[in-house]
Amino acid sequence: MENPNEKFNAENLKPLLGDMFKISDASGNSGEIKLSKLNEGVVKGIECDSFAALFTGPENQICEQGIYRVAHDAIGSFDLMVSPKSPKECEIIISRLTGDAVKLIEK
């Protein structure tokens, strides 16, 4: 399995806007969702790389927040926390600390 820190990032996802991604849960249910929007810099106030990836798909395909396998041929396969946003939308929010973690904890 690919390392999400290296492949599942906003820079690699930008050219894939509008593409279909495969998604599956631990029970083996699977389907496809389309990457419809990227929002960068969603976490404020700490030194981090953050983005939200919004996906659209069939109604109620993602009904519960949980860990899903998300895959695309161009970047690989990842187990990520996926949250429903509406009956036809779900999102993945990624935040990776880039600053000094010790200083952040001491605040």
Secondary structure blueprint with pairings:
Elements: H1 4-7, H2 10-13, E1 20-24, E2 30-40, E3 48-56, E4 66-72, E5 76-86, E6 89-97, H3 101-106
Antiparallel strand pairs: 1-2, 1-4, 2-3, 3-6, 4-5, 5-6
Helix content: 10-25%
Measure the end-to-end span. Answer: 35 Å
Instruction: Output the radius of gyration.
Output: 14 Å
Strand order of the largest sheet: 1-2-3-6-5-4
Biggest sheet: strands, sense, closure? Answer: 6 strands, antiparallel, barrel
Class from secondary-structure proportions: mainly beta
DSSP strand content:
over 45%
Overall outline = globular
- So how many helices? 3
The count of strands amounts to 6
Order of helices and strands: HHEEEEEEH
Mean pLDDT: 85
Q: Which stretches are poorly predicted, pLDDT < 50 over at least 5 residues?
A: none
